[in-house]
Amino acid sequence: MSRSSGERLGEADRAAVEPLVALVAVLAIGAGLGLYVTALDGATPEPEDPVDGADAVLDRIERDATVGGIVRPDRLRHLEDETPAVVELETERRRWRVGVGTASPFAGGRIDPRSSAVAGRSVTVAVAPGENVRGRLRVAIRR
Hints:
The chain is an alpha+beta fold. The protein has 2 domains: 11-43, no CATH class; 50-141. It is built from 2 helices and 8 strands. The strands form 3 sheets. It has a 4-stranded antiparallel β-sheet with strand order 4-3-8-7, with helices on one face. Strands 1-2 form a two-stranded antiparallel sheet. Strands 5-6 form a two-stranded antiparallel ribbon. A hairpin with a 2-residue loop joins β1 (66-67) and β2 (70-71). 17% of the residues are buried.
């Protein structure tokens, strides 16, 4: 049903919003904004903790000691003077260790995860020309 341009709309024909519906809409928008702020707060990065620092040092040491994707134990000796961490490379048959500092991060001959931030990962180790085995590269940094 169309109206001509000359007709006036009555008060009852005007669009109106019920007060309760408007209140519910305002509350829904407020709740949505609250959830958005909560999600943003959870997405903000946390300050770096020591374990993340150990992971960064481990990445650098692995990159410096690796040739062609294989860790070379003899390259660890070159890192001894320039790293602020204790580095341990261990295979089933042998263990190599380099590091600095007077306080030992070792308990029973191994890196003690309680005494410092420790990061480690599995790597391929060259133990002899043409012989590669799986090993574990660990880094302990001072807290």
